[in-house]
Amino acid sequence: MEKEQERKNIIESLEKELKVIKTKNDLANLKALYLGKNGIVTNLSLKMKDIPNEEKREYGKFLNEIKDEVSLKLETLLKEIERKELEEKLASEKIDITLPSKKIKKGSLHPMTRIQNEFEDIFVSMGYTVYDGPEIESDKNCFQKLNIPKGHPARDAQDTFYLKDEYENFLIRSQTSTAQVRAMEENKEKGPIRIVCPGKVYRRDEDATHSHQFMQIEGLVIDENVSMADLKGTLELFCKKILGEKTNVRFRPSYFPFTEPSVEVDVTCFKCGGKGCSLCKQTGWIEVLGAGMVHPNVLEMSGYDSKKYQGFAFGTGMDRFAMFKYGIPDIRTIYGNDIRFLNQFDRKDGE
Amino acid sequence: MLLSKKFVSDYIDLPKELSIKQIADDMTSVGNEYDSAGPLINCTNLIVGKVLECVNHKDSDHLHVCKVDIGSEVLNIVCGAPNVREGIKVIVALPGAVLPGGEIKKGVIRGVESNGMLCSIKELGLDNKFLEPKDIEGIHELPLDTKVGTDPIKALELDDEVIDFELTSNRGDLLSILGMAYELGAIYKKDVKDIDLTYKENKENIKDEFKIEIKTTDCPLFLAKKVKNVVIKESPKFIKNRLIASGIRPINNVVDISNYVMLETGQPLHYYDANRLGDTLIVRNANCNEKLVTLDGNERNLNENDIVIANKNEAVGLAGVMGGLSTEIENDTKDIIIESAIFDSIKIRKTSKKILRSEASNRFEKGLDPKRTYMAIERSCALLEKYADAEIVGGMLIHDTVDKDEKVIEVRYEKVNKVLGIEIPKDEIVSILKALGFKTLEKEDIVIVTVPTRRLDIKIEEDLIEEIGRIYGIDKIQGKLPELPLKLGKYNKVKREIKNKLASLGLNETLTYSLIPQSEVHKFTTDTFEEIMLADPMSEDRNTLRYSLLYSLKEVFEYNNARNNSDISIFEIGKSFYKENNEYKEKLNLAVLLSGNYYLDIKKTKVDFYILKGIVEELLDYLGFNGRYSFITGNVPSELHPGVSALINIQGNNIGIIGKLHPNVTKKDIFVFEIDLDKLLSLHPSKMTYKDISKYPSIVKDVAFVVNKNILNGDITTLIKKAGGRMLNQIEVFDVYTGENVKENEKSIAYTLTFKDDSKTLSDEEVMQVFNKIINDVTSKLNCTVRDK
After folding, report:
1. What is the pLDDT of residues B152-170, one digit of tens each?
2. Is-cis flag, bond preceding B685, omega within 30?
3. What are the CB-based long-range contacts (under 8 Å, 24+) for A42-51?
4. Is B483 inside a domain boundary?
5. Structural Rg of chain B based on CA atoms
6. Are residues A105 and B567, on separate chains, in Cβ contact within 8 Å?
7. Is B624 left (phi over 0), alpha (psi -120 to 50) or beta?
8. Are B548 and B578 in contact (CB under 8 A)?
9. Best residue in B368, B475, B557 to probe A by mutation, most A CBs within 10 Å?
10. What interhelical angle do B177-188 and B253-265 show, nearest 10?
11. Where are the beta strands (DSSP E) in B107-253?
């Protein structure tokens, strides 16, 4: 009973002292007071030598029990103190989540790059190779080999920039159709071709819908059996991808010296969906591309056998697509590079 | 080309129920686009009225109050025209009428009720060039026998409808009423009626009194006829109205007939006053600096590339473009020489581009049918006889070297369908060709087509396939996807990746003009090259192809700066142009410009050299050049700050420049770099391969060197690297210090050096050995000290 009383006294005094402990430091001191080298519980074991041998085992068990009990109580309080401390720390760290963010500067791709990437991706997925031709061209590649000899009236539509001292000889290209000639000339086997050529072109023209520099893309497919129907199917697929699944495509006969037959290609007006509005002049259609079957003269001039091969070609102004797609009213905005304009193209487009 | 429905109806019976809009749309679907289609006079609610009574308005010195009988009732109308008076027949616009000038409403004018308006011709919306002073100043007086209550536009014979076509440049044949009739005939399957070419000739012969001399190869066909004793007067109403509907101003019957025939046949004609002309017409190339006063009174300066018509003394006409003033038809003209000719289309195009675009030149440029050249001169005689009382002199002077054979082209049925990708039956192909007015001869697999000379645009089988396709309806073709072998599509991926990388680093991509002022082309570079200029620039600001993109980026900066956009970080990838060994060259450049703030935190970070350098490093690391590049001092463009600039070097190749813009160039803090991408990408980047992550710990040592200010971090790190050897894994600068405890001309640079061995745990002794070697090498070779030691 004496042992039991002793245990009770120790625990009671410990509990009394624990009640006033607030910090980990005080708790550590208290721990030393009980479990340290000269601690109250430690000192109990000094009595062991006075315990008769047959009771020693019993006493050892008692000592362990009391040690465990004290430890548990100290540990429990330690956890409680730590929990409180963490709570206080968290409370003190509370921030105003509504303050502005640390803004990282916006970056963006130019809308023309975005359009060009879209165009390229669609055609690359159909096995076309993106062909990058030079911007400085010969009159031969830009006109003559496209069945537009010197003095041809079709040259009027493209007021061309010739290089100094190179009149009717060298120029900066007025159409990406030059890529047709280059691709055919470079094809040593004179076999099938499937390319698109996006790039800058230049014409002496400047107003709200014309810029002296703009972006075109030209497509050319040459094989033994490609037809107008293939051209139409290709452009239908392309226009639906770029302008939306509801887009329809209409062919109208037209004239380009390097294609025969030639067509102009209209698509469903993207503003009114074909009902008729001011943009489409109430027709429901917008002209977006020129196209046709490659003229046999063009094939022959670049060394192709026009009896074996036929092909189709198409071309369009990418600026027009960008203006339509993003609703940009003035082409000069595209080349103005106002940061507020550029910053608008910093996100993924809705599908 | 303006097409008058009344005019073309002389030659084809158009289906009655067709609206003008429908005709225009049908023409569009066969390839002839239009700008507008509608009535010549766009007015509603007009009626013929008779002025029964006309008194002066009590409260006005010029207004009249009229009682006007319109048949169904008598209206009270206030009118301000000076010529309004009792008894005349007038055009009344009823309330609700819509005129080009606006809507007519009932109203009260100075206290008097007015129920409409009496109209002048101008108010009906005719262009000023067709109006005489009386059509503008006063109301129009209809003939007194005009029936009250009828349509005044009909009474004026202006009840025509007009389509304004925008034709393609290959269809010169459509610049004529006859050509239009054939085209409409093909659409509606109608025949084209014959043109009246009948007239009587007198017993004289032109050959006895006149001759032509063709002294140039630029005139393959030249015809001349003479008529005598014409009576110059006003043209009949139908001629005047058709000219007006076609956009040509009526002058007098003779001049009008020449224009009328040109509209009908597409063949421009010229009439000379025979008595002023003399007895010879010469066609020749102009002399250098030869002068000619054209019909419009302007003196033209000509050269050898222009073709002129001359008499024995001087040029009297600019062939194909405009006649001369000295021999023009005047009110006292009696005898006329008629010229109908074909001139070299390219020469005419060049002359007209230089001097004047006219109805005539437009037709010559596009090429003419030689048969029409004959037809037009005959038609001229027929009409002059009929409407100008002309006596036609017998015979015609002819210079004719033109081949008038009709082209014969074989069309394979199979080829038609192979090109169009559609199945059009043989009989339909033939019926389309016939509808176009072509002669056909059907064989087993082909049809042999004879193409009339009026269709100069048709030369080969494909041209006829286009004809078949467009009349059949090119839009009826069902689209399908081509059946082609599977093939890998390729594109320039790295260019896109660079753009994406830079955009992800917060830069906006720009797209600027390749053309810049010549004065700027050699800036931002130390390269010597020959610049490329334009022959005929739109302005001095855009006369040269750029070599560096930085001029353009600086322009973008300035544009934005003027609009208070001051945080600019932009890039562009574009071509750089130059001439080398007489060859035109292009290369791809990347340029970046930074100014203002880069991080837009509450505490913003101003752009400096090191942010820009970080962007270059990010990009080069990304492209796989990690550890191969360095920034070295050297010869930089004078537009860069000499102390805040460097060359970007990859293993001995200078690939670009970086730096702050020189204060002489701008007062703003602008940082730029430009890289020759072609050169960069030709230095093959390393392959990306996995390296085992070391299992062994690394040991880190710090050291700070106090060095002379002129010594670069690069000099120190080079020595550290060399002394550190394989064991030295990483060098980081963690502090650059000048100020207290460091001498005026010195700076302290502190480094964290990380040592590691991938095969074992390093001992401190091993590391210290290398570390001390580093310290010894740096201090001895750069003559500096270690700080705090």
Report:
1. 999 999 999 999 999 998 9
2. no
3. A44/A6
4. no
5. 42
6. yes
7. left
8. no
9. B475
10. 40
11. 107-109, 112-114, 117-118, 161-166, 201-205, 211-214, 221-228
* Overall average pLDDT of the B59-78 stretch: 90
* Whether B124 and B76 share a structural domain: yes
Whether residue B689 lies inside any domain: the answer is no
Six-digit token string for B97: 């009428």
| Residue B560 to residue A192, Cβ atoms within 8 A | no
- With beta carbons less than 8 A apart as the criterion, state whether B149 and B48 touch: yes
pLDDT of residue A157: 62
B545 interfaces chain A, CB cutoff of 8 Å: yes
Given strand B89-93, what is the order of strands in its sheet? B74-79, B64-69, B46-56, B89-93, B117-118
* Full 3-state SS string of A169-206: CEEECCCCCHHHHHHHHHCCCCCCEEEEEEEEEECCCC
Q: Is A244 exposed, middle or buried (0-12, 13-18, 19+ CB in 10 A)?
A: middle
Same-domain status, A130 and A262: yes
pLDDT tens digits, B374-408: 999 999 999 999 999 999 999 999 999 999 999 99
How many other CB atoms are found less than 10 A from the CB of residue B142?
A: 20
Contact criterion met (CB < 8 Å) for A135 and B575: yes
Picking from B567, B586, B602, the nearest residue to A135 by CB comes out as B586
Q: What is the pTM of this model?
A: 0.86
Q: Name residues 22-61 of chain A within 8 A of B (Cβ).
A: none
Task: Give the count of domains, chain B.
Answer: 6
Using a CB-CB distance cutoff of 8 angstroms, which residues of chain B are in contact with residue A307?
none
Residue contact B169–A153, C-beta within 8 A = yes
Residue A267, helix vs strand vs coil? strand
Write out the residue range of the structural domain in which residue A236 sits: 111-345
B733 shares its domain with B771: yes
Q: Which residues pair with B114 in a beta bridge?
A: B107
How far, rounded to the nearest angstrom, does the alpha carbon of residue A216 sit from its chain's CA centroid?
23
| B254 belongs to a structural domain | yes
Tell me how far CA of residue A17 lies from CA of A81, B528, B754, in angstroms. 15, 90, 51
pLDDT tens per residue across span B546-562: 999 999 999 999 999 99
Residue holding tokens 């009249």? B64
Kindly state whether B690 is in contact with chain A, defined as any CB-CB distance less than 8 angstroms.
no
> Which tokens go with B253?
């019957």
Minimum Cα–Cα distance from A201: chain B residue: B514
In this structure, is residue A105 part of a structural domain? no
Which residue does chain B place closest to A253, by CA atoms?
A: B31
- Tallying the residues shown for chain A, one arrives at 351
B508: chain A residues, CB-CB within 8 Å = 106-108, 110, 339, 342-343
